Amino acid sequence: MKSVGRVTYIRYLTESSQQPPEVVLLLLTIRYQLSPCGCLPTAAILDDPMECSRGERLSITLAKNRINRAPERLGKAKVEVDIFELLRDSEYETAETMCQILPKGVVAVLGPSSSPASSSIISNICGEKEVPHFKVAPEEFIKFQSQRFTTLNLHPSNTDISVAVAGILNFFNCTTACLICAKAECLLNLERLLRQFLISKDTLSVRMLDDTWDPTPLLKEIRDDQTATIIVHANASMSHTILLKAAELGMVSAYYTYIFTNLEFSLQRMDSLVDDRVNILGFSIFNQSHAFFQEFAQSLNQSWQENCDHVPFTGPALSSALLFDAVYAVVSAVQELNRSQEIGVKPLSCGSAQIWQHGTSLMNYLRMVELEGLTGHIEFNSKGQRSNYALKILQFTRNGFRQVSPGALYSRNILNDSCPVLLQENPYLMLKGNHQEMEGNDRYEGFCVDMLKELAEILRFNYKIRLVGDGVYGVPEANGTWTGMVGELIARKADLAVAGLTITAEREKVIDFSKPFMTLGISILYRVHMGRKPGYFSFLDPFSPGVWLFMLLAYLAVSCVLFLVARLTPYEWYSPHPCAQGRCNLLVNQYSLGNSLWFPVGGFMQQGSTIAPRALSTRCVSGVWWAFTLIIISSYTANLAAFLTVQRMDVPIESVDDLADQTAIEYGTIHGGSSMTFFQNSRYQTYQRMWNYMYSKQPSVFVKSTEEGIARVLNSNYAFLLESTMNEYYRQRNCNLTQIGGLLDTKGYGIGMPVGSVFRDEFDLAILQLQENNRLEILKRKWWEGGKCPKEEDHRAKGLGMENIGGIFVVLICGLIVAIFMAMLEFLWTLRHSEATEVNLRKGLNRRKKTLSHSTSEKRHKSLCADCIIHLLKYSSFSLSFSTLDFPEPPAFTDPQAEHLVHSVLHCLPVLLLFCAQPLSHTL
Fold first, then answer.
1. Which residues partner with 588 through β-bridges?
2. Residues marked as binding?
3. Which residues span the membrane (predicted)?
């Protein structure tokens, strides 16, 4: 039936203070006849009879009623939508349903929403009859190279979704991902995503669900592969099942990122996911700023409560909103078409070749439709696919999904309530003295605890410290698993590993590291071997006993040579007094045996002597001896300073090569530590030899902890290979420890994180900030310094104690005692012989006095002076046994001074004779 009509329209914008403008078509005059009842017939095919699952029937009713309540749209004409249900996804049933629809005469067919095979059959039939067909479901597979001209799809294409997924991966610089597909056709649907990975040569593993539809084995493989980014391309129900299974396996945490391509996944309930740090992303095209969206959602919610009270309402289904927009799109196109020509519906039959003559025209207007619907901007390209719409990113939070921008997604703080795992080791983590009275993080102290506080202040996150279960850093087992802190990070049991965890290539393969917060290297720790404790006679240590013996022999030899040379040379014999020349034939030699022994002693002690050599030969002997003593004294002084001020260490090894070349000293490292891995993987010959020794040594030279290694160093002949930072820490607190040689390598400590940790960059920036502010250096000084031992660089001279120079006092005291003892012997000897000596001496002096007096009276000018008399008495030839001497009577001195001198000599002669060892050999 034909209809005649004329349409005049005005387009205007209705604005809201918060909402974008909506384009509405107002029809001022409408005169046409579409059907006998004056309505716009449309058919909708629904394949889900359960109204509580989608609300599609209600959404169509809402759209129809809203349009019919606006007379400016169709005037007196009304929109009528006949709903047909498909109980099964059957080609025969679908064709039969279409054969029921075509005779009714419709302007468009809507749906179905979840039956890809049925949708394809409907599209083919509508194409043959040139009746517009609106799809509201994604293309599950591509059956034909090109879509029918009469088919329009309001659902975003898989190509657009794959482009959006690729954009997110590019934004996060993701190079490794896993794609979970429910059907093999997803490889064709996500062609653009696959092409991007092929071009960039990144890794994308594709895993298909088996016939059992159980994703558990598949998820275990992904967990073992350490893949952190998972893309799920399945329907909403299966996507939700996959996520629940992943949660059971501990794969729903901050270290995994899930991207779901199904646009209705956000409607699934996430009550079981209590960890709001999980990174779950999805997409949506809902336009919540639409004026009718809130009313639409409330209406669906009310209907849901009436029909589905056993299931909570999570939000409007996408298919219901797409059907709502499809009704509006048909009405808008019909309005546009009626401006230019008269249209009418025509009953069609499946058994005839008839077509709807206005179908092509209406399709052209449908492709030009532009309006704002519940699912955003509605517009189609030349292929009948939706274009120029906004695909919004949704992120799961504790309160459900919310729309975010990529920037907000990147800056999201997922560190709240994080669980860092630490290893108890001085000075990184220690229990406080009163830790029993405290709870939580307050029980601990140390370098890592303070650093974690600094990082928490910068990044603004909360944390709870937990100690690692087995107390080790982590080594790989034979079955491929890891122990210790590394193993807990791999299993996602911990968010951070904050300790002296060395960054190694082997660990970097299974976990992520931050930038190093401390640089160090492997060093050798050994106990200090001090020399013997200095004794009281340590001043003799600069020379060996053999040198002292040869010096004594040299002294005796020089004394004998000097005595003989002085006796042989005529130049050492001289008159004792100038005034006695010509009248006194007395010649003396100063190098007696006693003087010959005393003269070298004075030169050796650098004190000199009153005896001066006169002959060239004796001077030669003296000069050679002085040169000898100069070298000896200088060498002694130089060595004495070192021996008395420095307690030399007796270290049998001085470098790593010395350690490797011997077997007397055992050496080892911490089992499972980075130092052990260093020697195990080293290609350097010396280190390979050391590893072979450590690996084959029985009993084992490996220790379980640093404290055990320190105890082994102190209690046995053992050298400990450990990080230089720990070496420095323990040397500051135990003066019996020392470092041998320099560093064997250079490496760093870093904060460990699970693979794919999205906050690694944030920690890198925070660590760099702490380094620039010198905070890390301040913390190191706080926990490393303040030990018992002084710095090794302090070489200032120390005061000498009695243990260093006490022997000198012993020698002095012994010398004084010997001198006193000899003085007492001399006194007793003198006392015993004093009477006989005095009598004989007086007789002799009296006889001499008479002779001298007679001689003086005759020749006074020949009288001797006082000095000559002393020399005369000293060198006169008489025996030490004064009882046999027959001295002449002493002369009568005319000079009072001479007489006084003789009496003085008489009284002092006994003492002088005791010091004289030589008999008088010359007479006047």
1. 574
2. 502, 507, 674-675, 723
3. 547-566, 624-646, 805-829
